[in-house]
Amino acid sequence: MREVAVIGIGMNRWGELWEKSHRQIWTEAALEAIKDAGVDRIDAMYVGCMSGGLFMGQEHLGALLAEQLGMGPIPGTRVESACASGGLAFRQAYLAVASGAHDLVLASGLEKMTDVDGGAATYALSTAADQEYECYQGITFPGLYAMMARVHMHRYGTTRRQLAEVAVKNHLHGSMNPLAQFPMKVTAEQVMESVLVADPLRILDCSPITDGAAAVVLAPVELARKITKGPIIRVAASAHATDTIALHDREDLAWIASTATAAAAAYKQAGIGPQDLSFCEVHDCFTIAEIMVIEALGLCDRGKGGLAAESGLTALGGKIPVNASGGLKSKGHPVGATGIAQVREAVVQLRGAAGDRQVKNARLGLTQNMGGTGASTVIHIFDRA
Amino acid sequence: MREVAVIGIGMNRWGELWEKSHRQIWTEAALEAIKDAGVDRIDAMYVGCMSGGLFMGQEHLGALLAEQLGMGPIPGTRVESACASGGLAFRQAYLAVASGAHDLVLASGLEKMTDVDGGAATYALSTAADQEYECYQGITFPGLYAMMARVHMHRYGTTRRQLAEVAVKNHLHGSMNPLAQFPMKVTAEQVMESVLVADPLRILDCSPITDGAAAVVLAPVELARKITKGPIIRVAASAHATDTIALHDREDLAWIASTATAAAAAYKQAGIGPQDLSFCEVHDCFTIAEIMVIEALGLCDRGKGGLAAESGLTALGGKIPVNASGGLKSKGHPVGATGIAQVREAVVQLRGAAGDRQVKNARLGLTQNMGGTGASTVIHIFDRA
Lengths: 385, 385
Prior knowledge:
Oligomer: homodimer
Largest interface: A-B, 63 and 63 residues
Order of helices and strands of chain A: EHEHHEHEHHHHEEEHEHEHHHHEE
Distance between the termini of chain A: 16 Å
């Protein structure tokens, strides 16, 4: 397999983008990535999108967006794995370049979620869970993650304040990200007093509903060395793993097995361990998710994830900064685009171009993108070649 | 890139399968393919599905089906390109094996379309067209293909009877396929007198709404030689191309450019021309579609597709049999599964195991799977290694 680099990145400001169509949102990000890469063509493109059908009444986005970009008849492929759709689109693009099938490949993500009402958005998102065994009982995602939080609190003594500290940290980081949907800082008290969604999770524990897109351009490292003026950002590892889709089928409700499995494979491929990482971008769809994910990544001991944000371990300036971008919590969570935005942040950090939110001496970064309550996880590791 | 073979195939009888869930339908096909391959594990799986969200309220099928198969935590990826979802899932599986990332990969397709009413199914299918520029005007697929048919009839003199002859041929072929949804034979008169859907297309010009799944197992040719007792069926070419999603943006309404583009690439990769093919499985979602597709594949001259079925050129026993399986028309069209079922038929024919519908001296077969009105086309060519 050929070595692969990320040579261009693009993303627009995320939010409630009612005045723009999905075509426009996506094309802004894609053109920025192509311009940033310094190329005048791409050979193929992938787009991660969770539910074009339910959110926009539009499937077939691979062909539609290839045309919109003015690049038809290039191959355009949509990949879906719920909220991990972006990460998985990146992985398919990586395989396409690594295989030798294509040289310049655009990996992108898109979701336009705010053109439907809140109930319809909650229903669309629930299709990432098990429709026949979970959704038919009336359970949606805040409820599923609330149950995971309750188990974690009961077993490990994780506190309500520790959940809040994840939101405080990520909003602080997001306040330094000009593209974030909710860049305001919040206090732990504000989080703990915000509207209850599914006990113990409150509205400020939850990532928002967002319109947004992100895109990156991949190329073989050999070609990247000819094109790219700055540092070559290399894909050091790519891994994907699944778990039971329904929560009740898991051995342990307080452990994200798919993340642990994918992390082990990714660390092996990159020849590193979690202690070698400079930073991580992880899937904090709810505050409890970040706590459980950093345990599965081996950034802290099992059951100790609650202490991480509280102690400053995962803050900018801490031992292992997590979600310097603001994460899904502050940056926003257009589900299909999130995994690509994580890759974008990794590239920004490794280029040393993150401004106020720059991780010092960023050499090795990991992105973890997750679908459902962890039924799928996609992990990538990036370094400077 | 490594050479890739198809070593196992599986498919159940298609139809209105109200008594079975999508899990069961898919798993039957997948287990049959794995058993047929003679392996006891797979390393990764892909599933093509057009609109799990609109048809079943269930996205995230990669993870769900990997679990259902009892193969989690293997990577499970859903790929979508409207009615070309199955063909595109096969292509991603092919790239995963060719790249060296995985050895034994299951490529599958699934759609459960009959659990919603006819209006909801027509809406779900319309999301393969341009929602903002076509569907908002009230146009759905029979109308789009009817316009293409009108142009073809006007310009080339294609007749109403020639359209009907495509249905007659494919139902005759399908009558020899025990897995077909509608294996009854029809006459040209029956087609021409059937209920009008969108002038000039009548109900017997249209492929049906279907529940169904299909699956195949891919492996590197080198590994296949150790596992497989019978002939090695090799993937000689894989190509994917796009075109404008909206019909009104095409240069020529009576020409499927994405198929012509993908065919040129596939013929080049395989080092053959259309005259070398023993048979084709093509995307006859409407009778006019087969007529236009065989022109774009170069099986006959441009504008002469209408003569093909009428003259017997594309019948079993003719110069180039098209849709020996019965095609979408008779076999059924569970949209995400269709592209995989085409591959299955190619393997059955190349193994010489097609019984009454066997193409004589089948050495080289092509599958053409299409999304929308041809906004995307995926083509594969298979031979005996």
